[in-house]
Amino acid sequence: MDIRTIREALDAAVIEGETALDTIVEHVYASDLMSDVLAFGRANSILLTGLATQQAVISAHMAEFRGVVFVRGKRPKDGSMSFARDHQLVLLSTGLDMYEACVCVGSPVTLRRPPAEAAAEPQIATGILLQKEFPVQGGSFTDAGLVSTEVKALLKQIGFEPRLVRRVAISTYEGEMNVVMHADRAVVRLAVTPQSIEVIIEDQGKGIPDISLAMQAGYTTATEEMRAMGFGSGMGLPNIKSNVDNLHIESVVGRGTTLRMRFRV
């Protein structure tokens, strides 16, 4: 279905992306937990959420969603509109609550799917060698996700296959959010060759006392403030593990943690 049909079904106002309402989406995903969006959401979806923050919009972008619908009449008051404009995302706001919105979008009248179009094959340049570093500041939720956004843009510009770019972007974003929530600062190192993509996140912070425990889905040390922003559900490291081809974690309590993530091309 197209986003215009969804907007009409929800009687939603357009916050951003008036010219992109004909964009086709294949799935609808409803959640206020952004780690769940990254873990379980499918590409070419639209997100229904009550989390009216830039992190919801960045999460949608990382997961290759096409837009976000804010329920209960909510509208973001941060940099969401600018981010959506820069990355071709549609933002809508509906007065319906989450349940009502899901019912309306799921009605037989709404579920019209046009014929699928063949996707163009991405062209990857040969002899690629890209190395770049990005700083991440702990506690800076305003800027959280901007490094991952740049990494994603670089990989798309090179021409990597969309599903690979999505996996790298989600993993980098989860790692970046862990730095923002739990460390003082970090450096993200991106290294690209024709055979592999490697992302290393080396932070300075309190470290992880028990890595095996931290890798268990649902385990979290997030504060209530972090949970209110849609994170801290204990899916960060498990989500990274499910997206990478190789993951190595080193951590020293009181000093920091290093994530080494490798993706085969």
Summarize the structure.
With 265 residues, the protein is α/β, with parallel strands linked by helices.
**What order do the SSEs take from the amino end to the carboxyl end, as H and E?**
HEEHEHEHEHEHHEEHHHEE
Principal-axis shape equals: globular
CATH class division of the largest domain? Alpha Beta
* Cα-to-Cα separation, first versus last residue: 32 Å
* Helix fraction bin: 25-40%
Low-confidence stretches: 111-116
Give the number of DSSP strands.
10
- Protein structure class: alpha/beta
Counted up, domains total: 2
Q: Please list the strands of the largest sheet in the order they lie side by side.
A: 1-5-4-3-2
* Average pLDDT level: 88
Instruction: Tell me the Rg in angstroms.
Output: 19 Å
CATH architecture of the largest domain: 2-Layer Sandwich
Within the CATH hierarchy, at the fold level, what is the topology of the largest domain? Heat Shock Protein 90
**What does the oligomeric state look like here?**
single chain
Q: Strand content of the residues, in percent? A: 15-25%
Please, how many helices?
10
Structure notes:
- This protein is of the alpha/beta class.
- The chain folds into two domains: 3-105, 3-Layer(aba) Sandwich (Udp-n-acetylmuramoylalanyl-d-glutamate--2,6- Diaminopimelate Ligase, Chain: A, domain 1); 130-264, Histidine kinase-like ATPase, C-terminal domain (Heat Shock Protein 90, 2-Layer Sandwich).
- Helix content is 34%, strand content 25%.
- The chain has ten helices and ten strands.
- The protein has a five-stranded mixed sheet, with helices on both faces. Strands 6-7-8-10-9 form a five-stranded antiparallel sheet, with helices on one face.
- A hairpin with a 3-residue loop joins strand 7 (183-192) and strand 8.
- The longest helix has 21 residues, at 162-182.
